């Protein structure tokens, strides 16, 4: 609705954060035969890491450098008005102490803090809005796998997790669904899920990956890594792009876009009435790499210099 999206049509710039158990690999997996496989948030699947190894990695995952105030300050310095963080990516690993299952950072790792609660507090204190990314596709839950005869049980757990996310952390400005393209998920389930979210949190704006990415799904479209050639006024849109060549942390990826090129993207997107969700990837300690923080600061300086006098 237009009331729900009002803030969003003014606040054109947000921070996307890809942070999860995959970040602990730093973008690299060394197989038992010594060969190295590189990937980021898809590393479990694309490098075929055995689940027992991936689960063992959780027991060593301790991102104690995560500093919610520093994250929010980095966003604010960049002129970003909202933050969308991955709460659960395709690996199914919940980054908050969910009561729904034990595949989460609280139960499986030595890190006992709740980064979503910390981020919610810091964001509220600094006047930045908070949103959550949630992957419908789940590689870990046995009931979510292709051919599952018990998919509804997974969906019940998914809704329970979304209830936690939408009720335990204050106002959630945006929900960014993903992984909707993968069976057994269906468009009909998407419609039901959107209704469910509206019932829990009517002011949360939802992306169109809740359904089948039609104009009728959710509140806004999600072009990825691109600025649409012919932007439309018929649908709000938010272009997500990452600051280097990966979403999740990859220690060897220093192919950062320049501050000038990032600023051009922002201005171009805003000129076409779109929103820019620019991704950063905190490292295995939970810290946003300094080159990424620096680029955000550079964008913020440009906005300050060229904004209203
Ligand atoms: C998805 C995820 O698989 C990826 O890991 C990341 O989180 C990204 C933001 O979203 O990847 C996609 C989703 C959609 C397209 C391409 C990659 N698409 O529409 O072309």
Helix and strand arrangement:
Blueprint: H1 6-10, E1 13-17, E2 28-30, E3 36-38, H2 43-46, H3 51-58, H4 68-77, E4 82-88, H5 105-108, H6 115-126, E5 129-135, H7 151-167, E6 174-178, H8 187-200, E7 205-206, E8 220-221, E9 236-242, H9 259-271, E10 275-280, H10 290-306
Parallel strand pairs: 1-4, 1-10, 4-5, 5-6, 6-7, 8-9, 9-10
Antiparallel strand pairs: 2-3
Helix pairs in contact: 4-6, 4-10, 7-8, 9-10
4-nitrophenyl 6-deoxy-alpha-L-galactopyranoside is lined by residues 41-42, 178, 224, 240, 247.
> Numbering strands along the chain, what is their spatial order in the largest sheet?
7-6-5-4-1-10-9-8
Q: Helix count?
A: 10
Portion in strands: 15-25%
Give the distinct bound molecules. 4-nitrophenyl 6-deoxy-alpha-L-galactopyranoside
Spell out the helices and strands N to C.
HEEEHHHEHHEHEHEEEHEH
The major β-sheet equals: 8 strands, parallel
Quote the average pLDDT.
Answer: 95
Description:
By secondary structure, the chain is an alpha/beta fold. Helices cover 34% and strands 15% of the residues. The chain has helices spanning 6-10, 43-46, 51-58, 68-77, 105-108, 115-126, 151-167, 187-200, 259-271, 290-306; strands spanning 13-17, 28-30, 36-38, 82-88, 129-135, 174-178, 205-206, 220-221, 236-242, 275-280. It has an 8-stranded parallel sheet. Strands 2-3 form a two-stranded antiparallel ribbon. Helix 4 crosses helix 6 (115-126) and helix 4 packs parallel to helix 10. It is globular and about 55 Å long. It starts with 5 loop residues before the first helix and ends with a helix. The model has no long low-confidence stretch (mean pLDDT 95). The structure holds 4-nitrophenyl 6-deoxy-alpha-L-galactopyranoside. Residues 41-42, 178, 224, 240, 247 line the site of 4-nitrophenyl 6-deoxy-alpha-L-galactopyranoside.
